[in-house]
Amino acid sequence: MRPARAAASFDSATGMLRALSRFLAGQDIPAIGQAPRALEPALGAMLAGVNRLPPRWAEQLYAFSGVSEAVPPARLDEVDSDRLASWIVDHYPKRRYPVVFIGSSNGALVHLAAALDAPWLPQTLLVPVRRRGVDRDDPRAELEAGRVPAARLLAANPDLVLHHMHDPNQDRLMIAGMSYFRVKWRRLPEAYRRFLRDHLAAGGAVVAVECDLSWPVTRVGPRHVFQFGALGGASVAEYHSGGPRVADLLRRYGARRSSWRPPEPDEQAPEAEWGFEPELLTDLREAAHQHRFSLRRLRFDHPEQLSPVVADLHRTWNERRGLPVDRLLVESFLLLEPHWALRTGSVPFWMAFNTESSHRALRDFLDTRDFEEIRLMLFSHGTESIGLAGIDDWRQLVDRAGRCGELLGVDPRAFPRDFAGLVRAHRELSRVRPCWQLPPPHTLSDVDELVGDGVRLEP
After folding, report:
1. Which residues of 342-363 are buried (b: 16+ CB within 10 A; e: fewer)?
2. Residue 255 CB contacts under 8 Å (≥ 6 apart), including other chains
3. What CA–CA distance (Å, rounded) separates 48 from 43?
4. Cβ atoms of residues 343 and 140 within 8 Å
5. What is the pLDDT of residues 25-39, one digit of tens each?
6. Are the C-beta atoms of residues 180 and 12 closer than 8 Å to each other?
7. Phi, psi (5° rounding) for residue 302?
8. Residue 348 DSSP symbol
9. Cβ atoms 406, 376 nearer than 8 A
10. I need a surface site. Which of 125, 233, 424, 457 has the fewest CB within 10 A?
């Protein structure tokens, strides 16, 4: 099976891989890298038409677009982790790099890597698996439906661990017809080893990106766990014990229950999408010794803890270049623009989602910093999910700008079903003026100051 067929294109890891690899090739990322620039106007117009459909129809189209990527369960033994790793490294220009990042997905890390002219090799990928006949609000049935497909995938790939993730809150539309199999490399793939050997500059460094976020899981097998719920708007307690917000969500979506009954969790594990599997460190240390490169560890407890630190670094670097430091670009999930962030002299602040907790993280950042311009992109996931911050909440934050505050490419009437925003955000950002030339790369020594609340850059 072609790796591009196995890995979900709508996932955080693949979206960030596209954004960073295109930046390192001197390109921006129109239509989140899913279509050529020439098709952007037509695609935007088509998606704007979807926005005008009745919500139920728009949701079905959104779900179909995801399910169309899902792998048939009978073909999971054709998924090859070695080919997946080769596909990842083939995204990047073949030249020498001073630094290579390996590990957790993180939007702020994409901006840090771009500033250092450094690639990032993800530890985690999403393999969507086609599935029918399971009520999305029945996590016990979902676990059982995943046993045989999981065994097939893991038997063919002994270097992977599987986190079968099921989130009927934020991923409600997508999981109607598929299962989320998030796989993590526990061993360093041979393609990653070759990339380090052939493309890490002499005296270069590898940085393990380690998000220590964990989640309660149910152990299914030696390399297989089931994770119910995920980082986002609902709490662990709400997923497992219910509550008024869960009952309201299920009522609004016509479910025949008022809470979920997930299997009992029996351990903590790295969170499926964002968490780092520490077993990989054994191979990284061995490779560092064998190939004589230095190994550093970038550690943080939550995906968004890196965002204010990286934003402040860019603010400092802009000041040293003589650029304004009062232009803020707020990004969301896989809506990332490292090229235009640097070209427009914008300070990048990344949010994992559009939830109340992400809103709070941005609000806390703005409480102690002033910006004349604030532009904010919102990733529409199609669902009125628990903990979603409303459009008026986001307007209140952009209104803090001294001169210009705007929701970039957002149709407030359509959010969170604003699918055209995936295209419009790039187009509107690329029109921001003035623009500057891309700066020369920074070095890892320039970010030794990269410390903050819960963020550690360790030897």
Report:
1. bbbbbbbbbbbbbbbbbbebbe
2. 137
3. 8
4. no
5. 999 999 888 877 888
6. no
7. -145, 145
8. E
9. yes
10. 457
CB 182 within 8 A of CB 272: yes
pTM (two decimals): 0.96
pLDDT digit string, tens, across residues 247-289: 999 999 999 999 999 999 999 999 999 999 999 999 999 999 9
Alpha helices in 322-446 (DSSP H): 338-343, 356-367, 391-398, 421-429
- CA–CA separation, 96 vs 417, rounded Å? 42
DSSP string spanning 231-278? SSSS-HHHHHH--HHHHHHHHHTT-S-SS--PPPP-EEEE-TTT---T
Which parts of 5-133 are beta strand (E)?
97-103, 120-122, 124-130
d(CA 370, CA 28): 28
Is residue 270 within 8 Å of 213, Cβ to Cβ? Answer: yes
Burial classification of residue 7, based on how many CB atoms lie within 10 Å of its CB (0-12 exposed, 13-18 middle, 19 or more buried): buried
How many C-beta atoms surround the C-beta of residue 326 within 10 A?
A: 18
| C-alpha span between 164 and 182 (Å, rounded) | 6
Q: Judge contact between 123 and 182, C-beta under 8 A.
A: no
Place of tokens 């919500």: 55
Residue type at 382? G
